[in-house]
Structures are given as C-alpha cells and as structure tokens.
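re: that chain from earlier
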Amino acid sequence: MSQQMHWKNILKIKDFQNLSFSTFLHWMGFGMEHVALGWLVVEMTDSPFMVGVAMAIRMLPMFLFGVFSGFFADNFDRRIMLRLVTFISGTIPIFLGFLLIIDQVNIMILLVFYMFSGTAFAFILTLRQTYIYDVVGESGVVTGLSLLQIFSQFGGIFGSFLSGWLIQEFNVGIQYIAIGLFSFGSFLILLNVRTPGEFRGDQSDSFIDSMTNYFKLLKNHSILITLMILVSMSEIFGFTHMTLVPVFSKDVLYLGAFGLGVLTSIRQLGGFAGLVALTVFQSYKFKGLLVLLITTIFGLTQIAAYFSSSFISFAIILFLINASAMSADTLFKSLMQVSVPNKDRGTAMGSWVLSIGTAPLGHLGLGAIADMRGAKFGFLFNGVILFGTGLISLTLLKNVKKIVL
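^ sequence. v structure.
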C-alpha cells in the first residue's frame, strides 16, 4: 500500500483545482436537473411509477454504454474527450428549455431528452473518475475522488436551491437553459486543465479486441466482478431512493417545488458530510471492510425513512441516507480502480458505470411499489434488502474485507 497523499497537497495541484471548479459547475446543473425531473414528471402524470420510468431512462445509458465509455477512456486522451462530452451535455438542456418555453413538450419528448442527457452523463462519469487518477496518482486517488465528490455535492446543494426558486418564480424552461449554461461554464474551465490523460495511444485496441480483453480482465481479477455486484445492489436498492423523494415530498409532506428543492439540497448536504467523514478515515487502510459497513448503514437509514412523517425527521434521515450513499460510492470507485492494472483503469470505471446502469431495475420496481403501497413502504422495502446485503457481505466476502488502500 502506497503512502496516501494528504488532502492539502492535492488541493494545491492546479489541474485538480480546475477539475474541481469544473465539476462544481456541472453538478450545479445536475442538482437543478434532478429537482426538475421529479417535479416535471409528477406535474405531468401525477404517477410515482412514471417518476420511476423517467429515472430509469435517465440511468439506462449507463448500463448500455458503461463498457463502451471505458473503452473511450482507455483509448483516447481523457482530458480532450471530457471537454468534448461536457460541451455536448450543455446543448441538450438548452434545446429542451426552449421547447418548454414554447409549450411543445409532452411526456414522451421528456423521456427522450432524459435518454440523451443520461448518455452524455455516462461518458462524463467514466472520463472524469478515470482522469482524476491521472491528475493525483494512486496515492491520492481515494482522497482525490472524495474531494471531487465534495465539490460535486456543493454544486448539487446550490443547484437544488436555485432550481426550486427558478421554477417557483419563473418557469422550468428557464431553468433548463440555465442548466445548459452551467455545463458550458464547466467546459470553459476544463480548457485550462493541462495534465494529459493517459491512454494506450498506438497500442489502442479495436472495440472487439477491447471486449475480448475485458472478459479476460474479469476472469483474471474476479474481485472486480464482486465489486460490480455490490455496486449494482447499492444502486438498485439504495440510490433509487431518489425516485421516492418527489413522491414523498408531495404525498406525505405536501410540499411544492421550493420545498422539494430544499429537501434535495439537504440530501446533497448529507453527501457532502459523508465525503468529509471519508477524508477523516483516509489513514484507515481496510477500505474494503469500511465500504461493507457503510452499505449496511445505508440500508438502516432507508428503513428509518419508513417511520418518518414530518419535514424535520425526513430531512435528517435523507441527510444520513445520502451521507452513506456518497461515501460508499466513492469507496467502490476507488477499490475498482486499484483492483486492476493501470492500463485498464478506464475499463474498471466503465464497469462501475455499467454497474450503476442497473439502477433502472430499481427505479421501475420502486415506482411500481410506491404506486401500490406508497413511498414509505418503498423506503422500507429497499432498506431491508440493502441491510441484508450488507450483513451477508460482511459475513461471507472475506476477499473484499481484506482490500487495503
């Protein structure tokens, strides 16, 4: 295990600063889009199941293009590709914003937009998570990812607050134009990043060869498969709680768009707290054991949401849910990168994107459960399964518990 780079030293790296500010702006837009997605679909359909469908379509490209995005990250300059995809991601919400302003959007158009938006997001996730390794190296990857996620959460907090205000004071079309402008701002900052993104260059494989090598990689590094399964379980029965938040907000707490924005901001603040806690544990070397403990807690916090009926109690629980979610997510990404050779880190991150791309199964199932039994029962259902997953993993997965970083 290499000596871990201190977070203060990472913050002094100029390219890390630019990457962090770029991430902050991009996640301001993401936070705004997350509020708008739930609010728009509930307003258009008044159906928890359709919220689940929209969330599922937003995540589906991560499953479809996860491995392909890893191929991109390993075979092309990550810095250049990150700039390109970030620019493209800014054009999509601006186009939707204009359609909303002239009242030419129905639920089908909205779902198509989420498919395109989710595709851009899948590539951005893989490229950014892999590129951070190029900037800070192996000794700084866990802390670097945690710090980058902190900037993400801050962006999401401000974006969520701004979103609720924009919808209430203006309209959702103006908001989507603002989302696109934040992505363009993120792109402009990326132009100042100088560290080349490592890639295979002349030794680049064709996509078919990459797929063949991918299966060989999984065979030779079976721990990657285990981590992928754990990430999928966390996504299907953990992160899908996002489907329930707008429904819980409207049907249980009787809140409007601004109230939903406040709740989403509190949720993002919880993610920030979880990431700060993770930097405190940077010297704790058994990161595999730590991520399994956090997964178990993640399940417990969702079970607690079943017993909540007031704004204050639900806000506190939502804070704890996302604290668990973001710290587990960051650890999984770090463990997957260090479990493979350096030349295959892009593929490892593509595997992570592929794993979180299983979330549509959870969004659809949870939307259907909320339709039949309500949002509260949905939290209970997710929590019990994820809690059980954590306990079983702690008992059986000795190879994961032994991972040090």
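The chain has a mean pLDDT of 87.
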